[in-house]
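DM between two lab members

TW: hey, do you still have the Mini-circle protein entry open?
JB: yeah, one sec
JB: this one, 186 aa:
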Amino acid sequence: MSDQPTRWTQATVYPDMWADPADDPRDSDSPSPEGELGTLREYLRNYRLTLRMKCEGLDAEQLARRSVPPSSMSLLGLVRHLAEVERDWRNWITHTEPLPKLYGARDADFDGAVAEPAVVDGAFADLEREQAATDAALAAHPDLGERIGRERIAVRDLLVHRIEEYARHCGHADLLRECVDGRVGQ
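TW: and the structure you got?
JB:
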């Protein structure tokens, strides 16, 4: 008897995928986006969807589980972390006083990821709100070469950095989810 969950996937067409193409919201039959800005936004959208998909179907305990000891990471912690990061990026591009941290001191986004339904609901609401606010702030700057904010960061750099952050954490989410219930797939 093993404590390791049995590996499984919902996909039937391609067994190494998370979902069948017809059920995958990231998969579309439409042509690829026009231009660099459209391409960057599409990649960011897809990584955001991937994170949500990795969390779907789990209860509060499973989302909060630190499934790869001794790491403090959990799927819920990743959601909270990315909400915090979205806020930080928005702080980089404004000229106003920075918004306060959502969850407090360093690593509070992971440390406070506890198995309570209200914490789970709050984390997903925070993530959605912070993503929308950062997206709206950047929508005012369609020129990827424009430098904005106190740090004079290029819009392109910020978009690529956001994609990198989500991609890295989606890799973590793959491993965390597999350890929680055995579900695999890209």
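TW: got it. The chain has a mean pLDDT of 92. The beta strands are 147-148, 153-154.
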